[in-house]
Amino acid sequence: MMSTALVVLSGGQDSTTCLYWALARFGAGQVSAVTFDYGQRHRIELDCAARVAAHAAVPHTVLPIDTFAALGGNALTDTGVAVQAGVDAHTQLPNTFVPGRNLIFLTFAAALAYQRDIHHLVTGVAQTDYSGYPDCRQTTLQALAQALRLGMEYELTLHTPLMFKSKAETVLMARDLGALPALADTHTCYQGQQPPCGTCPACLLRAKGFAEAGIADPLVERFRAAQR
Fold first, then answer.
1. Can you give the pLDDT at residue 74?
2. Which of 49, 71, 91, 222 is least buried, going by the fewest C-beta atoms within 10 A?
């Protein structure tokens, strides 16, 4: 019996790269994707995830989780909080950190995998060259994977292909996997803008990765071509 995988797809650069990693690892027809509608301010993420899934020809499920919006207190779900550079003096984390988000996402993804007899989960979290989110660290993900296996009495492997890669290495990986065309439909900008603002922390990190890899960003090129 062939192994199947479920990819947590946000519509961003990293999860799209992981989707193509899963296709290369598990094969066409063996991969599906799940996206969470968690009350994010920038609904464009949901549209991008749908387009990426269609581009990759994988089944795509959207699950609603509105509790994060009710909790508020961060720049990704609370309209009263503006994206700020640097870290909060109290938490020492960027105000784009959504407490518990990846833990909840992966728990729901694991439940969906259980229902569909899928034993591999793939997520695009990484602890290098990123914002320092504690729920993106390998130790966190290892502990969560063990808790999910025990809590569901179900054999489940959590894959984090980007965990120790820089943004430049992730770009090169996307190129090698044939994911660059799909990256033209991704969204990274914390301001929710298309074309991307180019100045927020997420845009700057993405631009740095493409520049260091020596590859033009397909998303930026898409809008440049449209303006010609």
1. 47
2. 91
